[in-house]
Amino acid sequence: MDFDVGIIGGGPAGSATASYLSRAGLKCVVFERELFPRPHVGESLVPAATRVFKEIGFLDTLEKAGFPKKYGAAWTSADRAPVYAMQFEGLSADCHVDIRFEEREQAGVDRNYTFHVDRAKFDLMLLQHAHQLGAEVYEGVRVRGVDLSDPTQPTVHFKLGQQDIRTRVRMVIDASGRHTLLGNQLRLKVLDPVFNQYALHTWFEGYDRNRLSHGRGQPEYIFIHFLPLTNTWVWQIPITETVTSIGVVTQKSNFARSRQDREQFFWECLRSRPELYEGLRAAQQVTPLKEEGDYSYAMREICGDGFALVGDAARFVDPIFSSGVSIALNSGRLISHDILAAAEHGDFRHERFRTFEALMRRGTRNWYHFINLYYRLNVLFTAFVQDPRHRIDVLKLLQGDMYDEDEPAVLAEMRRIVREVERNDQHIWHKYLGSLTSSTFSEVF
Question: 198: closest CA among 265, 298, 117?
């Protein structure tokens, strides 16, 4: 074999996997199709990522980079209707809720903050860290496919200049992100029938991040601003002291085709929250408007004899709670445990990766159901965040701890209330229901 493990993709999932395995003494190679640094969406981290950074020895490097620290999250709504103050089963909602990470101790996390990151810099740093730990890294190399006809020696095919090259490995990891190389090659990909979201996003210089903080002074938080459009929201993420990432996420059916129409749609969405709109108009847009599509999908299988899929290559769920990088990093952590055990026994068959498979299926399923509830009834989410009976259980999910329970009790309780609101068209919260239904909790994949 040329390498023990071949990793397709040098983003957070691939770099984390390479770091874990290289630290443990396996010979790894990373094939990255682009040249880093390269821009990428998804700039806000959650605390579950800190555990990974500590375990691979990257946390000190990250601290020294000077990225803005993230102490919590806040959600705002323009709707100040009296219904938001009305009680239901001891719950009351508000148009502004927030939460601090320090409110719950988290295993493997020793600080009360995480980070907002410029992904171009962050991804480059993480890939360089994997290389420093011993992983071979090839950038600007496009993998053309993987030959799995003999699963005991998968062969990665790629092109270097004009030369076709084959590399034999003991196992292949697909960390190719939303390119989903193996998912497409093996016809494993299933588009999400529920979430079909698109995002329009850009950076602004000089935006006053306290405009919608309701006097709480939270410029270092990530903000999620609800819009009065079905299943549409805005992210607000600090990139530097003066630069802020703003993104509008909406359903594909709302998404305009032409660039001119998209620009207009972006600003019309923001106009529905006048205070946000006015603040951004007073700021300077410093990057072109970009779009992200094909938002949510799953795979019928995420591992098999001689291969596994990690990060976005395995599953992509609407990233409303900054889940993307955390799931990518933790999938690298989880698969690495199984790979090391497989390498010790010289056996890379599917059975060796059942633990990884079960944990990833469980975690992403919990996250998916959490987001279903969020879109179905925003008012319920804000009520649970405020209520001391449920606040810590919700925070656990927001911190990225979602792998240890088949279904957290808080999700079952939220689903029960959603169904009650759905059945009663006279319910005080009924008119706040989104277009989804609680039937989306069935396992659509």
Answer: 265
